[in-house]
Amino acid sequence: MAETFYSVLLCVLGAVVLRWSVSLGPYSGKGKPPMFGDYEAQRHWQEITYNLPINQWYYNTSDNNLLYWGLDYPPLTAYHSWLCGWLAHKIDPSWIRLNDSHGYESREHKLFMRYTALGADILVYFPAVLLFCLLCIPGKSRPHKVLIAAVMLLYPGLTLIDHGHFQYNAVSLGFCLWGVIGLCMEYDMLGSVAFMLALSYKQMELYHSMPFFFYLLGKTFTINSWFGRLFYLSKLGVAVIGTFVICWFPFLSNPEDLFQVVHRLFPFGRGLFEDKVANVWCAVSVVIKVKNILTQQQIIKLSLWSTLISVLPSSLNLFRHPSVDRFVISLVNSSLAFFLFSYQVHEKSILLAALPVCVLLPFKPLPCTWFLLISTFSMWPLLEKDGLVFSYVPAMLLFYLAAYHVLNLGKSRSRTKGMFYLSVLGALGLHLAAATVKPPARYPDLYPVLISVYSCAHFILFFMYFNYLQFSLPYFPNMLMKSKQA
């Protein structure tokens, strides 16, 4: 027991040191008025939620200009912002003074913001990763499980975005992982509560919603009696609806307030994708400008149907065969389908696919390590813009070396290793070309576009691979986590 405690402590300390090292660097929009970046967005939400009454948080008013980083995440994010704002006000009220603090930057405030991101990791994400590895991975010793947790916590994509660029993705991803743990341990009600917390923190958790829904629905039909099915569904309904009501309660008394929040969460007027995201629509736009051919409503319908068609096979397979291993792989397939085909996708949304891939690391080490490296590479244009070059390189190397030794990547099939190293060489070649060869004046975004297309091609192939893996499970029933379900 003492050995496990000390190994967990070392694992956590190592993850904290990595995050703190990254946090010493710059952040999104540093010194770049008038909009700055995501760092300012998070600070501004603290300003708004602390200083304004709750019924004004999502409305455009003289004190809340929604065009200046208006709040566009669900209530749990707003409550978190209020808590951080309350702490900020206790330390230095000027950090969140209404209307007068826009673009506020100082060494002390940066330290405070970095502490809040680290605290969110330690309170929500770290325990979820450690408990998943200790409770849900069969056939490994405890020390080895802790090492696997360390590899998961070293994933560079999440670290660079949350502690470099600056966001709180670890909160929603942590809640989602708590949901996965609940379902793995057959505490389905607790798992449902945890996932509803994730969804009430960030609406992008819809990427994971289909597997949760179809797994629990499919499990319902494994119960023999109709009474048992109704009782099970009733318990799930109480867990889901109860969590929703608690999180959204301040906005439920007035339908207009609720509709305004929903309107802010789904801004269809923004466009099909953001910047140079590595999804299908961005890659296609190199050849075909979809927005010049179709109306906005047609584009929304196209992305909706494309997403549904790509996610349904995995979801229906999970419904017919509701097992934990198939559920986790379906999380990858669902989130990749949403990332590749849905509307209004950001570069950072690949983190939603990276979470279940991290979960699969001990079961499919090389493909998952490969995916996680490419997912971080796909965000390079954003990370470079933020000045995180000197954090990106060591974080990537550290993760690869840790995965190589802990997960025994050297024992993978030679053909797979060959493809992996060719892929890495291609990514390195793009990095080298971008650093040494100036793009033509006619194509200033040449390298970000090439990186996006290169990464998108990988994600499409990974999407096919993980779908194949899920549909092959009946032939390999013990390949992943042990489950009581058929």
Automatic annotation (TrEMBL):
<keyword id="KW-0472">Membrane</keyword>
<protein>
    <recommendedName>
        <fullName>Alpha-1,3-glucosyltransferase</fullName>
        <ecNumber>2.4.1.-</ecNumber>
    </recommendedName>
</protein>
<dbReference type="InterPro" id="IPR004856">
    <property type="entry name" value="Glyco_trans_ALG6/ALG8"/>
</dbReference>
<keyword id="KW-1133">Transmembrane helix</keyword>
<keyword id="KW-0808">Transferase</keyword>
<feature type="transmembrane region" description="Helical">
    <location>
        <begin position="449"/>
        <end position="469"/>
    </location>
</feature>
<dbReference type="Pfam" id="PF03155">
    <property type="entry name" value="Alg6_Alg8"/>
</dbReference>
<feature type="transmembrane region" description="Helical">
    <location>
        <begin position="146"/>
        <end position="166"/>
    </location>
</feature>
<feature type="transmembrane region" description="Helical">
    <location>
        <begin position="419"/>
        <end position="437"/>
    </location>
</feature>
<keyword id="KW-0256">Endoplasmic reticulum</keyword>
<feature type="transmembrane region" description="Helical">
    <location>
        <begin position="115"/>
        <end position="137"/>
    </location>
</feature>
<dbReference type="GO" id="GO:0005789">
    <property type="term" value="C:endoplasmic reticulum membrane"/>
</dbReference>
<feature type="transmembrane region" description="Helical">
    <location>
        <begin position="350"/>
        <end position="377"/>
    </location>
</feature>
<comment type="pathway">
    <text>Protein modification; protein glycosylation.</text>
</comment>
<keyword id="KW-0812">Transmembrane</keyword>
<keyword id="KW-0328">Glycosyltransferase</keyword>
<dbReference type="GO" id="GO:0042281">
    <property type="term" value="F:dolichyl pyrophosphate Man9GlcNAc2 alpha-1,3-glucosyltransferase activity"/>
</dbReference>
<feature type="signal peptide">
    <location>
        <begin position="1"/>
        <end position="23"/>
    </location>
</feature>
<comment type="similarity">
    <text>Belongs to the ALG6/ALG8 glucosyltransferase family.</text>
</comment>
<feature type="transmembrane region" description="Helical">
    <location>
        <begin position="326"/>
        <end position="343"/>
    </location>
</feature>
<feature type="transmembrane region" description="Helical">
    <location>
        <begin position="389"/>
        <end position="407"/>
    </location>
</feature>
<keyword id="KW-0732">Signal</keyword>
<feature type="transmembrane region" description="Helical">
    <location>
        <begin position="233"/>
        <end position="252"/>
    </location>
</feature>
<feature type="transmembrane region" description="Helical">
    <location>
        <begin position="172"/>
        <end position="199"/>
    </location>
</feature>
